[in-house]
Design brief:
This protein is mainly alpha-helical. The chain folds into 2 domains: 17-103, no CATH class; 123-172, no CATH class. The chain has 8 helices and 3 strands; from the N terminus they run αββααβααααα. The protein has helices at residues 6-17, 39-55, 66-79, 97-101, 105-122, 130-140, 144-151, 155-170, and strands spanning 20-23, 31-34, 80-81. The chain is globular.
């Protein structure tokens, strides 16, 4: 017999699945909704990005960030929703992934950072403690081993780390 039923799991996840409301960058009096993607949705985003890169015969040696940009676009497409939508799942903010691809790079990066901000806000346990920030800052200041320590982390983890550090440093 399972320890938890689906209703208990749904209640536990409700706060994490809530849609965050944010001002749309650069537009007064206009909001967008942001929701966290499930692990399965993140897998789909990655698979779709790889397929897009293969179809375009992208040369990762020439443009090593091409795949990352496709992943960020996929996350923005799936995570941004109409903040007033009552549908489950909420209505998408963008009509198509091509609409996101048509945005300028600064806007895509800004929207992706909104997603990361929402992710941090809905998971306060992911924030680094003051001691962890101090330890990381101290180790980064010690030279060459710091670069090796950070080089194994993916971009999203590094961004999450930077947001956590900024949150801690801002509160001091």
């Amino acid at each position: 017999m399972a320890k938890f039923n689906s209703e208990q799991v749904a209640r536990a996840l409700a706060g994490r699945r809530a849609v965050g409301r944010f001002p749309f960058p650069g537009v007064d009096d206009f909001e967008c909704g942001v929701r966290l993607l499930s692990d399965a949705e993140m897998d789909e985003v990655r698979i779709q990005a790889v397929e897009f890169c293969k179809a375009r015969r992208a040369d990762m040696l020439v443009d090593p960030e091409f795949l990352d940009r496709q992943i960020h676009r996929g996350i923005v497409f799936r995570a941004f929703v109409d903040p007033d939508s009552e549908a489950v799942p909420p209505a998408r903010f963008f009509e198509s992934l091509d609409e996101v691809r048509a945005l300028d790079p600064v806007m895509v990066r800004t929207l992706f950072e909104l997603y990361m901000t929402h992710q941090q806000a809905t998971d306060p346990l992911s924030y680094m403690s003051r001691e962890e920030v101090d330890s990381l800052v101290e180790s980064l200041g010690k030279g060459s081993s710091a670069a090796g320590r950070l080089s194994v982390l993916d971009r999203n983890t590094l961004l999450s780390c930077a947001l956590s550090m900024a949150h801690i440093l801002r509160s001091t």
